[in-house]
Write a structure and sequence with these properties.
Length: 217
Protein backbone atom coordinates (compact mmCIF):
# COMPACT_ATOMS: atom_id res chain seq x y z
CA UNK A 1 0.00 0.00 0.00
CA UNK A 2 2.88 2.35 0.76
CA UNK A 3 4.04 1.96 -2.85
CA UNK A 4 0.63 3.10 -4.16
CA UNK A 5 0.58 6.04 -1.76
CA UNK A 6 4.05 7.05 -2.92
CA UNK A 7 3.24 6.75 -6.63
CA UNK A 8 0.03 8.77 -6.45
CA UNK A 9 1.56 11.33 -4.08
CA UNK A 10 4.34 11.71 -6.65
CA UNK A 11 1.68 12.18 -9.33
CA UNK A 12 -0.31 14.82 -7.46
CA UNK A 13 2.73 16.76 -6.21
CA UNK A 14 4.44 16.57 -9.59
CA UNK A 15 1.39 17.80 -11.45
CA UNK A 16 0.65 20.67 -9.09
CA UNK A 17 4.32 21.68 -8.99
CA UNK A 18 4.55 21.85 -12.79
CA UNK A 19 1.10 22.84 -14.04
CA UNK A 20 0.55 25.94 -11.90
CA UNK A 21 3.92 27.62 -12.68
CA UNK A 22 3.66 26.56 -16.33
CA UNK A 23 0.23 28.14 -16.78
CA UNK A 24 1.10 31.25 -14.81
CA UNK A 25 4.38 31.78 -16.69
CA UNK A 26 2.78 30.83 -20.05
CA UNK A 27 5.22 28.00 -20.71
CA UNK A 28 5.14 25.89 -23.84
CA UNK A 29 1.98 23.76 -23.85
CA UNK A 30 3.75 20.95 -25.70
CA UNK A 31 6.35 20.65 -22.93
CA UNK A 32 3.64 20.53 -20.25
CA UNK A 33 1.67 17.90 -22.19
CA UNK A 34 4.79 15.77 -22.64
CA UNK A 35 5.54 15.93 -18.93
CA UNK A 36 1.99 14.98 -17.98
CA UNK A 37 1.90 12.10 -20.46
CA UNK A 38 5.17 10.68 -19.16
CA UNK A 39 4.11 11.13 -15.54
CA UNK A 40 0.76 9.42 -16.05
CA UNK A 41 2.35 6.56 -17.99
CA UNK A 42 4.88 5.96 -15.22
CA UNK A 43 2.38 6.11 -12.38
CA UNK A 44 -0.52 4.21 -13.93
CA UNK A 45 1.79 1.78 -15.69
CA UNK A 46 3.58 1.08 -12.41
CA UNK A 47 0.39 0.61 -10.42
CA UNK A 48 -1.11 -1.58 -13.16
CA UNK A 49 1.99 -3.78 -13.20
CA UNK A 50 1.96 -4.10 -9.41
CA UNK A 51 -1.73 -5.03 -9.43
CA UNK A 52 -1.23 -7.64 -12.14
CA UNK A 53 1.58 -9.18 -10.12
CA UNK A 54 -0.32 -8.82 -6.83
CA UNK A 55 -0.43 -12.54 -6.02
CA UNK A 56 3.34 -13.21 -6.10
CA UNK A 57 3.97 -9.87 -4.36
CA UNK A 58 1.53 -10.71 -1.54
CA UNK A 59 2.98 -14.23 -1.29
CA UNK A 60 6.45 -12.70 -0.99
CA UNK A 61 5.47 -10.77 2.13
CA UNK A 62 3.01 -13.22 3.65
CA UNK A 63 2.70 -16.99 3.87
CA UNK A 64 -1.03 -16.94 4.59
CA UNK A 65 -3.53 -18.84 2.48
CA UNK A 66 -5.75 -17.93 -0.44
CA UNK A 67 -8.43 -16.15 1.60
CA UNK A 68 -5.97 -13.60 2.94
CA UNK A 69 -4.44 -13.08 -0.51
CA UNK A 70 -7.88 -12.48 -2.05
CA UNK A 71 -8.76 -9.89 0.61
CA UNK A 72 -5.35 -8.22 0.27
CA UNK A 73 -5.85 -8.07 -3.52
CA UNK A 74 -9.24 -6.38 -3.05
CA UNK A 75 -7.72 -3.87 -0.64
CA UNK A 76 -5.00 -3.12 -3.21
CA UNK A 77 -7.67 -2.43 -5.83
CA UNK A 78 -9.59 -0.10 -3.50
CA UNK A 79 -6.35 1.72 -2.67
CA UNK A 80 -5.56 2.20 -6.36
CA UNK A 81 -9.04 3.62 -7.05
CA UNK A 82 -9.03 5.95 -4.03
CA UNK A 83 -5.51 7.23 -4.62
CA UNK A 84 -6.19 7.52 -8.36
CA UNK A 85 -9.20 9.75 -7.72
CA UNK A 86 -7.10 11.85 -5.32
CA UNK A 87 -4.39 12.25 -7.98
CA UNK A 88 -6.91 13.29 -10.63
CA UNK A 89 -8.44 15.77 -8.18
CA UNK A 90 -5.00 17.33 -7.74
CA UNK A 91 -4.80 17.87 -11.50
CA UNK A 92 -8.31 19.34 -11.60
CA UNK A 93 -7.60 21.64 -8.65
CA UNK A 94 -4.33 22.85 -10.19
CA UNK A 95 -5.98 23.63 -13.51
CA UNK A 96 -8.96 25.52 -12.08
CA UNK A 97 -6.78 27.46 -9.66
CA UNK A 98 -4.85 28.73 -12.68
CA UNK A 99 -8.19 29.86 -14.13
CA UNK A 100 -9.14 31.56 -10.82
CA UNK A 101 -12.07 29.17 -10.42
CA UNK A 102 -11.98 27.73 -6.92
CA UNK A 103 -15.51 26.40 -6.41
CA UNK A 104 -15.51 23.57 -8.97
CA UNK A 105 -12.66 21.51 -7.48
CA UNK A 106 -14.12 22.01 -4.01
CA UNK A 107 -17.49 20.65 -5.15
CA UNK A 108 -15.78 17.71 -6.90
CA UNK A 109 -13.85 16.95 -3.70
CA UNK A 110 -17.05 17.05 -1.66
CA UNK A 111 -18.71 14.69 -4.12
CA UNK A 112 -15.84 12.20 -3.99
CA UNK A 113 -15.88 12.17 -0.19
CA UNK A 114 -19.62 11.51 0.06
CA UNK A 115 -20.81 8.05 1.01
CA UNK A 116 -24.22 8.62 -0.57
CA UNK A 117 -26.61 11.32 -1.73
CA UNK A 118 -30.23 11.34 -0.63
CA UNK A 119 -32.56 12.94 -3.16
CA UNK A 120 -35.90 14.22 -1.85
CA UNK A 121 -38.63 15.72 -4.01
CA UNK A 122 -42.10 17.21 -3.68
CA UNK A 123 -44.87 17.33 -6.26
CA UNK A 124 -45.09 20.92 -7.52
CA UNK A 125 -48.57 20.56 -9.02
CA UNK A 126 -51.33 22.68 -7.52
CA UNK A 127 -52.98 21.22 -4.41
CA UNK A 128 -56.45 22.57 -5.10
CA UNK A 129 -56.68 24.38 -1.76
CA UNK A 130 -59.62 26.84 -1.86
CA UNK A 131 -59.10 30.51 -0.89
CA UNK A 132 -55.34 30.09 -0.67
CA UNK A 133 -53.44 32.52 -2.92
CA UNK A 134 -50.18 31.69 -1.18
CA UNK A 135 -48.49 31.51 -4.58
CA UNK A 136 -49.64 35.12 -5.34
CA UNK A 137 -51.58 33.98 -8.40
CA UNK A 138 -54.97 34.25 -6.77
CA UNK A 139 -55.92 30.61 -6.75
CA UNK A 140 -54.81 27.25 -8.16
CA UNK A 141 -56.41 27.97 -11.55
CA UNK A 142 -54.51 31.27 -11.79
CA UNK A 143 -51.27 29.58 -10.75
CA UNK A 144 -51.76 26.88 -13.35
CA UNK A 145 -52.54 29.44 -16.07
CA UNK A 146 -49.42 31.45 -15.18
CA UNK A 147 -47.26 28.32 -15.26
CA UNK A 148 -46.41 28.68 -11.58
CA UNK A 149 -45.62 26.08 -8.96
CA UNK A 150 -47.65 25.40 -5.84
CA UNK A 151 -46.12 27.20 -2.86
CA UNK A 152 -46.95 24.26 -0.63
CA UNK A 153 -44.48 22.13 -2.63
CA UNK A 154 -41.59 24.20 -1.25
CA UNK A 155 -43.04 24.19 2.25
CA UNK A 156 -43.47 20.41 2.17
CA UNK A 157 -39.98 19.93 0.72
CA UNK A 158 -38.43 22.16 3.37
CA UNK A 159 -40.10 20.20 6.16
CA UNK A 160 -39.02 16.88 4.61
CA UNK A 161 -35.34 17.75 4.14
CA UNK A 162 -35.13 19.44 7.56
CA UNK A 163 -36.50 16.29 9.18
CA UNK A 164 -34.06 14.15 7.17
CA UNK A 165 -30.94 16.10 8.18
CA UNK A 166 -32.08 16.16 11.83
CA UNK A 167 -32.24 12.35 11.75
CA UNK A 168 -28.78 12.27 10.17
CA UNK A 169 -27.40 14.59 12.85
CA UNK A 170 -28.98 12.46 15.59
CA UNK A 171 -27.18 9.41 14.15
CA UNK A 172 -23.88 11.35 13.97
CA UNK A 173 -23.82 11.38 10.16
CA UNK A 174 -22.43 14.54 8.54
CA UNK A 175 -24.97 15.96 6.10
CA UNK A 176 -26.00 19.20 4.44
CA UNK A 177 -28.94 20.34 2.34
CA UNK A 178 -27.71 21.30 -1.15
CA UNK A 179 -29.96 23.00 -3.69
CA UNK A 180 -27.33 22.43 -6.42
CA UNK A 181 -27.96 18.68 -6.21
CA UNK A 182 -31.67 19.36 -6.66
CA UNK A 183 -30.90 21.58 -9.65
CA UNK A 184 -28.84 18.78 -11.16
CA UNK A 185 -31.75 16.35 -10.68
CA UNK A 186 -34.08 18.83 -12.39
CA UNK A 187 -31.69 19.23 -15.33
CA UNK A 188 -31.52 15.44 -15.62
CA UNK A 189 -35.33 15.54 -15.98
CA UNK A 190 -35.89 12.79 -13.43
CA UNK A 191 -39.47 14.02 -13.05
CA UNK A 192 -40.64 17.36 -14.51
CA UNK A 193 -43.48 17.60 -11.95
CA UNK A 194 -41.19 17.40 -8.92
CA UNK A 195 -38.98 19.99 -7.23
CA UNK A 196 -35.83 18.46 -5.74
CA UNK A 197 -33.26 18.99 -3.02
CA UNK A 198 -30.27 16.78 -2.25
CA UNK A 199 -28.56 15.74 0.97
CA UNK A 200 -24.99 14.36 0.68
CA UNK A 201 -23.86 12.09 3.52
CA UNK A 202 -20.37 11.57 4.91
CA UNK A 203 -18.73 9.85 7.87
CA UNK A 204 -15.16 11.03 8.40
CA UNK A 205 -12.82 12.63 10.90
CA UNK A 206 -14.36 16.06 10.35
CA UNK A 207 -17.44 17.49 8.70
CA UNK A 208 -16.44 18.06 5.06
CA UNK A 209 -19.52 20.18 4.31
CA UNK A 210 -18.74 23.15 6.55
CA UNK A 211 -15.08 23.81 5.81
CA UNK A 212 -15.93 26.12 2.93
CA UNK A 213 -14.06 29.36 3.56
CA UNK A 214 -12.73 29.25 -0.01
CA UNK A 215 -16.26 29.96 -1.25
CA UNK A 216 -16.20 33.35 0.42
CA UNK A 217 -13.11 34.72 -1.33
Amino acid sequence: MIVFLFLFSFLSSGVTAVIIPAYVQKKSRAAVDSFLTLLYLLVFGGTGLIYLLREPIIALFSSRGGNFQAIAGDVMLYTIVIQGVTGILAVTTAYYQCENRYNIPKVILLGCNCLAVVLIGADKQQRGVPYCGYCEHGDCAGCRAAGGNCAFAYVDLGIAVSSAVSIGAADMVDCRIMYSIGKTAAEMELDPDVVWLGIPLSISGKNIFFDRGIFHK
